[in-house]
Amino acid sequence: MSNSQTLPRADRMGGRAWGVLVVLCGAIFLEGIDVAMLNVALPSIRAELGLSTATLSGVVSAYVLGYGGFMLLGGRAADMYGRRRMFIAWLVVFLVFSGLGGFATEGWMLLLARFVTGVAAAFMTPAGLSIITTSFEEGPKRNKALLFYAGTGAGGFSLGLVIGGLLTRIDWRWVFFTPVILSAVILLAALWLIKEPAGEERVPRRLDLPGALTVTVAMLLIAYAVVRLEHPGQGWGWTLASFAGGVAALTAFVVVERRSPAPLVRLGILKSGPLVRANVSALLFAGSFFGFQFLVTLYLQELRGWSTLETSLALLAVGIDAILAPTLTPRLVARFGNTRLIFGGLVLAAVAYALFLPLDLDWTYAAMFPSMIILGLGFALAYGPLTIVATDGIAEDEQGLAGGLLYTAFQFGAALGLSAVTAVNVAALGDGSREAALGGFRAALVVPLVMAVLAAIVIASGRQRVSAKEARLASEEAIPAS
Length: 482
Fold this sequence. Notes:
By secondary structure, this protein is mainly alpha-helical. It has helices at about 15-50, 55-80, 85-100, 105-135, 140-170, 175-195, 210-230, 235-260, 275-305, 310-315, 320-325, 330-335, 340-355, 365-390, 400-425, 435-445, 445-480. Helix 1 runs antiparallel to helix 6 (about 175-195), helix 4 crosses helix 15 and helix 9 (about 275-305) packs antiparallel against helix 14. The longest helix is centred in the first third of the chain and has 35 residues, at about 15-50. Keywords: Cell membrane, Membrane, Transmembrane, Transmembrane helix, Transport. It is found in: Cell membrane. It holds the Pfam family MFS_1. It is a multi-pass membrane protein. Its main location: membrane.
């Protein structure tokens, strides 16, 4: 695969290559820490601004809508209009609207700020990932870079929980202002280190406007429908209508792309078995992880009365993946391959969720710790290799699209997992007593377990197909030529 960045030879990981990698890792760390810190600060925001429960939920949902709704378009825009250009431009938007969120005095201001910040992340994130996949040749060095990248993103989310708790104690507005400072530093470094492709003529491409509109409408409607699943008591009419509208728009998108001479998304990319399996597994894995984390947070704070900071520290053990992903995982990938590692990570995640099922009203942290540390190890084994598999073998001019597909899967998976555990938890609450609430948590904890098991089955099916193909080729080679 050709190298599109003016870096020293990527296989040598020179100073410029490391610099680019650090900048892009900083951006994914920023995205992770931004989401985590806000989740921790929500109670303080509601207390000061007097937000209703619906508006507070909308602050989270607005980001999901912007991120999920524009991710595919953002990924393709990076391929068409320049990865550096898209990355830097939308990093600026991310910086500006994160700052505006910190100055919010009304609920609608927060909703607007979070929606546009989500849109900015939808363009910025796949652009950053595709810069990595086109700057490092496919193989060990790219794998190492992607595992550093994945570990940093996971570390941002884990550390964001603790940092958000500390900043909220000072003033919740710092949860918005801190990303502004980080964005400014990353922006300055990106302007200096990330260069446009050298010696490469950019072929002008006409935007597939019908495709862009239909896929964005489809993603927005489906994301909205998934978010509404969190509140089954609000009625199923709008939820079903949103799903139906999303499916209709997605069908129209497929029809448009098949007829377009310059499609926004080449549908043939979905014929790649490894890519599809990686994306389906990523969706299920993200749903299980974020659903579990949400339930644990509610259990510790609402049922056990732990403080925000105590809860954040309790979940910090999961962040061990930020250390293991760039150090241990590359060695394991080289020895066992991506598929085996992903399968092992998903099995460990399922074990972690199963160990948490017997939770009680007086559980000690020592009883919770095995689940936390095993989940962190499982995340370290699965997350980075999923990123590798989802982008391996994809043409350079579609790397942004591959990144967009992967992060769409992660985002929709997270939203689906949160909605599913919330719906099950609410349905099983019973009479509202502490014992009934505990029963609700236990019932909802089955959802992450099932999602992790399904993800492992999807990955295992791919492994079986590869083994069958290898056996068939071996038998053909064993037959003497006539």
